[in-house]
Amino acid sequence: MNANSNLERQGKPALTKTEKRIALKKSIKKNKWIYLMILPGILYFFIYKYVPMFGLIISFQDYKPYEGIMGSEWVGLEHFKRLFSDPDFWMIFKNTLILFALQIIIFFPIPIILSLMLNEVRQMYFKRSVQTLIYIPHFMSWVIIVSISYVLLTMDNGIVNGTLEAMGKQEVNFLLNPDWFRPMYVLQVIWREAGWGTIIFLAAISAVDVQLYEAARMDGANRFRQMWHITLPAIKGVIIILLILKIGDVLELGFEHVYLLLNASNREVAEIFDTYVYTAGLKQGQFSYSTAVGFFKGLVGLVLVIGANWLAKKAGEEGVY
Amino acid sequence: MVEDKTLSSRLFNITNATLLIIVALLCVLPFLHVVAGSFTTSAELAEKKFVIFPTEWSLSAYKYVFSTDTIFRALLVSIFVTTGGTLWSMFLSTLTAYGLSRKDLVGRRIIMFFIVFTLLFNGGMIPTFLVVQQTGLLDSLLALIVPVSINAFNMIILKTFFQNLPPSLEESAKIDGCSDFGILFRIVIPCSMPAIATISLFYAVTYWNTYMHAILYLDDASKWPVQVLLRQIVVLASGMNYDGSVYTEVPPPEQSVKMAVIVVATIPVLLVYPFLQKHFTKGALLGSVKG
Fold it and tell me: Which residues of chain B does A255 touch, with a Cβ-Cβ cutoff of 8 Å?
C-alpha cells in the first residue's frame, strides 16, 4: 500500500489545507453519484466494525444489558486486573501461544514445500489434477472438517480405531483425550488449508526467469540445489509477507474450529481466547469481563502484526502495510 | 525448457510424483470414505472392512435423514441465506468496489484505510454481539447476512479488478452521456464477469458454511442452517459437548446417518466447485496483490 501511495504522490506538489478542501468540494460535486454508491458500504463498516470498537469501552464498565453503556457503572481497569490474576488466563494464554507456534512451525512450511514439489512437475495435466484435489478441503466448512474427522476417529465404529483394532493395537480415544487435541487441530488445519496455501507461492514461482534454471544446470546444479538456490530465494519476499499476515492472525486461530473440538475433557489444552470470550460472555453473561479479554487479545494481535511488519522492513523486505 | 534426462533427475521425478499422488489422495480419501459409508448400513460399517467400496449398498441412511422435517428446514434456511446473502453482499461490494476504484475520487485513500484497518483490529465478539442485538437482528436470519455484508478482502479483489479495466471503456461511455450508475451496470460489470463470478462463489461458499454467527445470534432451533444441524447430529449427539446440553429432537444417530448428513451438507459446495475452480486461482491472486 505504502509503495503505491508514494508512487501516486510523486510529481504532485503537496497540497495546502484550503486547496485540499476545494479539491474535495469539486470531487463531491463531480462524483456525487460515486459517493452515493460507496455510502452503503461505508455505513456497513461503520455500524458493524467501528461501533463495536467504541463498544470496547464496556470493558472499563460493569456493563448491565438493561442499563446500557450510558447507565452502567465505571470500574476502571478492574476487569483487566481480574484477567491477569485469573489462573485460567495463563492457561488460555499458553494454549493460544502453543497453537500459534504449531501453526507457524508445522503448518506454515507445508504449502511452500508442496508448491516447490508441484513446480517440479512437468506434465501439466498431472499438476492440474493434483491441484484440483488438494484445493477441495478449503471449501468445506470447519463443521464438515471436524465432523468427518469425528466419524473417522470415533471409537464407535470409526475406521481409524477399527484399523487399530484389526492390527491388534489398543483403541485410542482421539476425541476426548487431551493429548490428541493439538495434533488433531494441526492436522485439520493442514488438511483444509495446505493445498489452498500453494496458490500464492505457485504464482510467485511462475514469475521466476527460466534462464536461471538453465544456467544453474549448466553449472551442474541438481534439482534440489536449483530449488534451494533459485526458487526459494525468488519467493522469499512472498514468504515473508505471508508470514507477517499469519502473525497478524496469531490470535485468530479460528473460533469455529477450536470451539468445535472443545469439550469438557480437553478444555485445559483447547480453551483459547475466543472460546473463553464466548463462554464467559455469551453463555455466562459476563459481558464486561469477556470484552476485556477480547480487547486484550485484539491489542496483542495489532501490536504483533505491526511489529512483524516493522521487522520485515528492517530486514530490507517490502512489508505489507 | 530443455529437460535433463539423467538418472537422478528421473528418480527425482518419480519420487516427487508419487508423493504428490499420496498427498492428493489424503486430501480427498476421508471424504470419499464418508460418502461410501453414507450409502451402506451401519452393520457393514461396524465390520470395518472397507475404505471406499462397501459390499452392501443401501439408501437407508438417507431415508432416515429425510424422514423428518428437520433437515429440510435446515436446508431451506441455508439456501435462503446463501442466495439472499450472496446477492446482498455482491450488490454492496460491487458498488463500494467500483466507487473506490475511481482514481479521481477525493478521500479514496482515507476510506480505504478505514476499511483495511478493520482487518487489523475489531471490536471483538461481545461488542459486535451487542450491536447486532441493538440493530434488532437477534434470532432473525438477517443476523447471518447483515453483520457480514461486505468481506473487505473480496471487496478489494473486485476493486483491483475494476481498476485494471482499460480506462478508455469508461471514457467513451462518459462521452456518450452515460451516468456513473450506467457505466457501472452497462459497462464495468459486464466486462468483469470472471471477477464477479469468482467473488459471488466465494461469498456463496462462506454463506453456505456459516456456523459461528448462527450459534452466536440464533437461539431458535427452527432457524438453524444446515451446518449447525450437522454439528448437533454428529458431534453433540454423542455426548461430548462442552456445556452438557444434549440436542433432544434427534436421538443419537447411527454412524451411516451421520455420514449421510455430512454428505448433504457438503454436496452443494462440491457441485459449484468445478465452476469455482476455473476462476478462483486468479481471484485469490488478485486479492493478494494488495493486502
Answer: 125, 212
